[in-house]
Amino acid sequence: MRLSTTPFIVLLAFVTAPGAVDVPIGPRATFTATGAGEVERAQAQRRPRLRTRTDLVTVAVSVVDSDGRLVTGLGQDDFSVFEDGVEMPITQFVGERVPVSLGLVLDISESMTGQRMADARLAVDQFLNDLLRADDEAFIMVFNHRPRLLKPWTEQPSALAGALDEVTPTGGTAVYDAVVESLKPFAQRSHQRAAIVIVSDGADTASDHSIADVRPLVRRADAFIYAIAIDAPSRRPVSGRPDPYALREITDASGGYTEVVHASADLAPATARIADELNRQYLLGYAPPRGADGKYHSIRVRTRDTSFRVRARRGYVAEPYADGR
Questions:
Q1: pLDDT over threshold 80, residue 182
Q2: What CATH number is attached to the domain comprising 264?
Q3: Residue 93: strand, helix, or coil
Q4: H helices then E strands: how many in the chain?
């Protein structure tokens, strides 16, 4: 059985969806993948495949109170996990911070020229230098009318600081293509927890993929996806502004969220809030009741205190390997 892989995205196994390409999938605790293309070749040259247990579904969980503040200090008995509506015994629980594999995905289309790009560079460098830890790992992907892996997995994220200094904004905006491509490196990640952070200031104008293509891929991924949409006052048409509803359709299904900021200067505080959440997550695990049946299974996590709000991925696909395992 293989894992549906994903993270966190600031817009965190292989499945082929109609009109889509092969990407990692993943709630099962097994990371393995093969593939072709720029992303796969870069990762394959860097590290071997990672395999772990195949009899465990793992779920990263964020908990907030009624005021939106992150809740820490909960124990295993404070949680209940349900698969397809049936409560599952929790067999794994981690309440402390564990390392994370993080993909930073940055819009470098023409509209990001000038101060927006300068603020984005500052926010990314702050994230890498100050908000991630030495035992985390990260990659940087940029996109305009096509996504490009700028820096592959790097095990000391601070070493990636300054990677955007030579990037020149140009071209259109292919957000959906960037989401599809950003999922691929997670097949070769080192850590159980995963996240993607996507930063964009515009609506999708250049993707070959549609939101309909992206939905099933996100359902199969186990990474939290976060998006920061820059909707600064300007004279550009409404059609060129970011679409928070489409972004939320992507991020909310993964357990992440979309935040809209109205100035590029707000990027640094927004990324800091994401980092704070990643530092305060819980990791739950349970034994799945079914084998690799190829079907989608819903996941719901609840807390004993019903005033808390829980964010976690909403399900997974129990995909077998090609050899039937």
A1: yes
A2: 3.40.50.410
A3: strand
A4: 6, 15
**Are the CB atoms for 255 and 224 separated by under 8 Å?**
yes
Over residues 217-245, mean pLDDT: 80
Burial 207-230 (b: 16+ CB within 10 A, else e): bebebebbebbbbbbbbbbbbbbb
- Structural domains counted in the chain: 1
Amino acid 254: pLDDT: 93
Whole-Å CA distances, 281 to 39, 60, 70, 222, 293: 28, 7, 9, 14, 29
Going by pLDDT thresholds of 50, 70 and 90, the confidence category of residue 232 is: confident
Reference 8, options 130, 139, 135; nearest CA is 139
Query: What confidence tens digit (pLDDT) does each residue in 151-174 have?
Result: 999 999 999 999 999 899 999 999
DSSP letters spanning 209-274: S-HHHHHHHHHT--SEEEEEEE----SS-GGGS--HHHHHHHHHHHT--EEEESSGGGHHHHHHHH
Name the strand (E) or helix (H) holding 200.
Answer: strand 193-200
Domain containing 210 equals 1-325
Whether residue 34 contacts residue 14, with contact meaning beta carbons closer than 8 Å, is answered with yes
What is this structure's pTM?
0.82
How many Å apart are CA 231 and CA 4, to the nearest integer? 32
